[in-house]
Inverse folding.
């Protein structure tokens, strides 16, 4: 409930304060947050690949939000706050529900978490009142947002958590991570083509650095898996 509510709310607030491409890229900081958190909790020293991943994600975020000028922000402070909050929420949402999903299944966990999260937000929205006109375009937009952009996407992403590991075994961790990077890249390209949002050179460099951190993390995970499996093969 907390994960589904916060990850969706913070992501949409980031879009409201900036744009869809920036929101998607900032949320992709979540893998770096996950590995940094586990390294801190387990008190284990991060390997060179994880260290490089953290460094590249930080540099990428710096370029994305400042365009290389530390004295100014290229996005609003609110967009930066909600974008970072979205990344932390996505990290929590990705790691926490694994035991619940194994016990109850994907659809019940996703469905109930979204239903309860929506009921929690309903009183806050009811106080604001309704200031929009309900028409066919609005209904179609809400249908796409609720059914395709939220329910279907969340169900597939959560269901894909174990299958992503299988895919990494079949095609390799780096290749699997490159495929997962299609989301922020496609978001940036579609924002450019359909919405007229322009990405400057620092924006593209920051995006590529953040995405490269995901590939580095996957390479480190694959290297660790090989170390674990190597003694078993000798036996």
């Amino acid at each position: 409930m907390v994960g589904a509510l916060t990850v969706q709310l913070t992501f949409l607030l980031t879009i409201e304060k900036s744009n869809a491409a920036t929101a998607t890229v900032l949320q992709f900081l979540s893998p770096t947050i996950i590995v940094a958190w586990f390294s801190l909790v387990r008190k284990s020293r991060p390997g060179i690949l994880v260290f490089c991943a953290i460094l590249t994600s930080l540099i990428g975020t710096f370029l994305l939000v400042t365009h290389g000028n530390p004295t100014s922000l290229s996005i609003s402070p609110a967009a930066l706050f909600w974008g970072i909050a979205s990344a932390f929420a996505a990290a929590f949402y990705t790691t926490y529900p694994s035991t619940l999903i194994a016990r109850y299944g994907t659809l019940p966990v996703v469905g109930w978490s979204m239903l309860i999260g929506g009921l929690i937000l309903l009183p806050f929205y009811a106080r604001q009142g309704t200031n929009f006109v309900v028409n066919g375009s609005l209904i179609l937009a809400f249908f796409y947002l609720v059914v395709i952009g939220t329910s279907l996407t969340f169900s597939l992403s959560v269901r894909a958590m174990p299958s992503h590991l299988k895919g990494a075994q079949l095609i390799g961790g780096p290749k699997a991570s490159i495929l997962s990077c299609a989301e922020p890249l496609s978001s940036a390209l579609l924002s450019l083509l359909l919405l007229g949002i322009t990405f400057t050179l620092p924006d593209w460099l920051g995006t590529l650095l953040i995405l490269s951190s995901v590939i580095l993390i996957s390479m480190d995970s694959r290297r660790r898996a090989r170390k674990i499996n190597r003694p078993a093969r000798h036996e």
Remarks:
- The longest helix spans residues 136-171.
- The CA atoms of residues 170 and 176 lie 9 Å apart.
- The two ends are 44 Å apart (CA to CA).
- The chain has eleven helices and no strands.
